[in-house]
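Q: Got a minute? One more chain.
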Amino acid sequence: MRIPFPQLKAEFKRVLQSLDFTETKAEACADIFAGNSRDGVYTHGLNRFPVLYSM
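A: Always. Here it is, folded:
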């Protein structure tokens, strides 16, 4: 399944904000996670996100 970058980033940001990340931190983290997934750094993209989410 392919998800467009803006949609993936927006979803990361939404979840992070629900975890009480500030707007600025949620935006930065979402950009990093989505960018890593887009660039093929799978160990620090979507695959890593559940680790952060479980903290």
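A: The longest helix spans residues 23-39.
Q: Perfect, thanks.
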